Amino acid sequence: MDLSRIGEFGIIKRITKKPIDKNILIGIGDDTAIIKLKNKLLALTADTLVEGDHFSLDYFTPEQVGKKAIEINVSDIGSMGGIPKYALVSLVLPRNTDVKIVDAIYRGIWQTCKKYKLEVVGGNITHGKQLVIDVSMLGEVKKENLCLRSTAKPGDFILVTGPLGTSTAGLNLLLKNIGNYNKVRKAHLEPEASLYKVKPFLRYINAMIDVSDGLASEVQHICEQSKVGAVIFKDNIPILEETRKAAELLNANPIDYALYGGEDFELVFTVSEKNLSKVKGFLIGEIRRKKGVYLYSNGKERLIKKHGYDHFL
Amino acid sequence: MDLSRIGEFGIIKRITKKPIDKNILIGIGDDTAIIKLKNKLLALTADTLVEGDHFSLDYFTPEQVGKKAIEINVSDIGSMGGIPKYALVSLVLPRNTDVKIVDAIYRGIWQTCKKYKLEVVGGNITHGKQLVIDVSMLGEVKKENLCLRSTAKPGDFILVTGPLGTSTAGLNLLLKNIGNYNKVRKAHLEPEASLYKVKPFLRYINAMIDVSDGLASEVQHICEQSKVGAVIFKDNIPILEETRKAAELLNANPIDYALYGGEDFELVFTVSEKNLSKVKGFLIGEIRRKKGVYLYSNGKERLIKKHGYDHFL
Questions:
Q1: Taking CB atoms and an 8 Å cutoff, what residues of chain B touch A39?
Q2: Mind giving me the DSSP string for A92-154?
Q3: Nearest CA-CA partner of B243 in B307, B162, B302
Q4: Most buried one in A33, B25, B182, B286, CB count within 10 A?
């Protein structure tokens, strides 16, 4: 769930108005909404995949599309420190859709649901001009595990759970129909949520977000909502050797893939110096009072452009 | 939420497999899923509107589309005896969409949310070839108010909360660009959920469903899931005088609109003879052991065709 880009339409003020219901702890503006129900916290989110925009059946199998539709929502709930529980699947299908494709999409959905012990409890199927999968998901979050975008503190370290830019390298290989580089292509075709990587130490995390739109954009979200700034150490950004090789082949800069690419679904989180030893991840930067997100390299800092890769642009 | 029509794709077995999680009281197969959380019951549902299939901007204003997207989900939660609380709105927009249209859709969404004191807590916006609005909704149901499709009893009376066929008459007038008949056209353009009509006597209702696909189809759902049959008294089906006049003009049978039309969003419910005096509505039939749904008229019964109007056919 990310309505931040709705600003493109000039209606952000209406969309982000303050919730009236006091049980809405977090409304629009984080990875999921957080709703208090008695002594439980519920995480509620939805994310949409549109054929031709988010995937192409030229290189995705229908199973992979089904898997991805679930993983991206699991990632959103995981980035709040939550556990996914129940999913609704809304499918829009072109009239000529082969039943085997629908069957395969659901096979992917069920496989991924099984992995996370989450269940599809409903949804609907309708007609349309192109394949659309909108999954909404309900999860639970323990109070002590809740991780927001808005709670990073100056002095925090910034860590990431795994290598970045992999998915974007994979996408570019797929678009140009370049073989090999299997790990990189698979990262795009079968992304996996990273919630289990942070599960053992959730209570030590100050702020967290998942990397759906590129590191630059995600750190910017944390900084804006926490009213802080950040510096990212360019040389510390974890990038797979295979991603670097693919980027070279594609005449691209792998750092750009990491900063402005998307869909790695790793988690970026901040942690105080005191708790650094309690967590695991790649240390890539620091939160500080000075506003703006800067990239540090060779003794110099430069301001990072605001937006990463945006599906809507 | 209605995945019953997914049977068209031959994957109904996979979709409707028995839930593993014991807190899923109702999974796929009713108007919403029902999930037990501590001593609360949550209702979870999603419904999709696709331009060209469910509405046309030739005769719908964007506000009306936004309103309808919320009302149809409120209707599903209401048909379980629940109260809607939180909504997620996923929008797929063609690239040339005017910001004014998006703004107007959200105006409709917010107006309807305000009416039901429900709040939009998230969602997303993506690109696509046609306008799609998928709304998912979370509601609460008091245990004593829970109304399922599967709990009708032989001997129950069948009641409906209001006139049927109105929306279909309106749709046909709109498709043929015929003016006047404002009430009928408005019924299609601005349908309203009927939950408040049954709220005072929910605990006396045995089974309930909302009329999204026509009376024949809805009573069939109740009968199949309750393992009973029904007879509907043709002359008792409430149909507005204006609907009858519109049908005459359109050379159609208003009873067909009621039985096989859709989107009236009235509620059909069953109640025991003992509790009949406790409820309000139009008495249109009876539940009985003999399987099948029959229409009674002029001393004769005939079996009603299984499917009403189905968006997917």
A1: 38
A2: EE-TT--HHHHHHHHHHHHHHHHHTT-EEEEEEEEE-SS-EEEEEEEEEE-GGG--BSTT--T
A3: B162
A4: A33
Domains A4-144 and A147-303 agree in fold: no
Find chain B residues with C-beta within 8 A of A106's C-beta: 11, 14-15
List, for residues A126-137, the tens digit of each pLDDT value.
989 999 999 999
Residue A311 confidence class, pLDDT cut points 50, 70, 90: very low
Domain extent listing, chain B: 4-144, 147-303
For residue A253, the distance in angstroms to the closest alpha carbon of chain B comes to 27
Interface probe for A, chosen from B4, B5, B9 (most Cβ of A below 10 Å), is: B9
Interface contact flag, B102 A53, Cβ < 8 Å: no
Each residue's pLDDT tens digit in chain B (313 positions)? 444 444 444 445 555 667 888 899 998 888 899 999 988 899 999 999 999 989 999 999 999 999 999 999 999 999 999 999 999 999 999 988 998 999 999 999 999 999 999 999 999 899 899 999 999 999 999 999 999 999 999 999 999 999 999 999 999 999 999 988 999 999 999 999 999 999 999 999 999 999 999 999 999 999 999 999 999 999 999 999 999 999 999 999 999 999 999 999 999 999 999 999 999 999 999 999 999 999 999 999 999 976 544 443 2
Cβ distance of B119 and A28 shorter than 8 Å: no
Question: Measured between alpha carbons, how far is B26 from B150 in angstroms, rounded to an integer?
Answer: 10
pTM, rounded to two decimals: 0.92
| Residue carrying structure tokens 């792998």 | A254
Cβ pairs bridging A and B (under 8 Å):
218
Instruction: Choose which CATH entry (3.90.1300.10, 3.40.50.150, 3.30.1330.10, 3.30.1390.20) describes domain B4-144.
Output: 3.30.1330.10
- Give contacts of A136 with chain B, Cβ < 8 Å: 46, 88, 90, 134, 136
The B83-93 sheet, strands edge to edge: B24-26, B33-37, B40-50, B132-141, B83-93, B119-127
| Alpha-carbon gap: A103 to the closest alpha carbon of chain B (Å) | 6
Q: Which CATH architecture has domain B147-303?
A: Alpha-Beta Complex (3.90)
